[in-house]
Amino acid sequence: MIGWQGTLRFGRDLEVTEVDYDGVGGLNAAFLGEGLLGVLLREAGELRVRVRAINPVRLSESVELTDELVVQEGVPVAGGSALLGLAFLQNSAPANSPKNILYQNIPNPVTESTMISYDLAEAGEVVIVVRDVRGRVILKRAVTGSAGKNTSLIAVNELPAGGLFTYTVLQGEWSDTRRMIVARRR
């Protein structure tokens, strides 16, 4: 997915206290008082919404994706449009607890370049390793990461061929791995 748009509707039991985004896109917050937020994000955009529960409520029952301000649709890498949905995943860590997280690369499949994003609990030396399906190291990059959000851009011409690859981000005792598909343009 290289972009998406839609309207987030927040139930009466939620108060939106903060809205922010990174990347290319925009927000329509003019109707937040009515519980509506219009969103358009492209490429490696990230939306952050902080809410406060006025009464006990489940987010999965109080936040929905609608067409009220902005028609909901996703834009796949290949073009066209795709249907969207919201998923709420249980997270047992406190919201303010810093932790290391590796995100899925964007875009995936990769045709020209891709952005690998990760959060670090503490600043320090980070190693990014890309391996082919046989486990051979194709690319190894050492960088200094800062506490919080970090990104690393990988161009297709840094990889020997198209296909399935894994990328691993390591810092100290922590590491995490994800898959990416490289589809070379002809």
Write up what this structure looks like.
This protein is mostly beta strands. It is built from one helix and twelve strands. The chain has one helix spanning 59-62; strands at 3-10, 14-28, 36-53, 63-66, 73-75, 101-102, 113-120, 124-132, 137-145, 148-155, 163-171, 174-182. Strands 1, 2, 3, 4 and 5 form a five-stranded antiparallel sheet that branches. Strands 9-8-11-12 form a four-stranded antiparallel sheet, with no helix packed on it. The protein has a three-stranded antiparallel sheet with strand order 6-7-10, with no helix packed on it. The chain starts with a strand and ends with a strand.
Please give the number of β-strands.
12
Could you tell me the strand content as a percent range?
Answer: over 45%
What are the secondary-structure elements, in order, as H or E?
A: EEEHEEEEEEEEE
Stretches where pLDDT is under 50 for at least 5 consecutive residues are: none
Shape: globular
Mean pLDDT: 87
Q: Residue share in helices?
A: under 10%
List the topology elements.
Blueprint: E1 3-10, E2 14-28, E3 36-53, H1 59-62, E4 63-66, E5 73-75, E6 101-102, E7 113-120, E8 124-132, E9 137-145, E10 148-155, E11 163-171, E12 174-182
Antiparallel strand pairs: 1-3, 1-4, 1-5, 2-3, 6-7, 7-10, 8-9, 8-11, 11-12
What's the gist of this structure?
The protein is an all-beta fold and about 190 residues long. It is built from 1 helix and 12 strands, in the order βββαβββββββββ.
Keywords:
12 strands; 2% helix; 186 residues; five-stranded antiparallel beta sheet
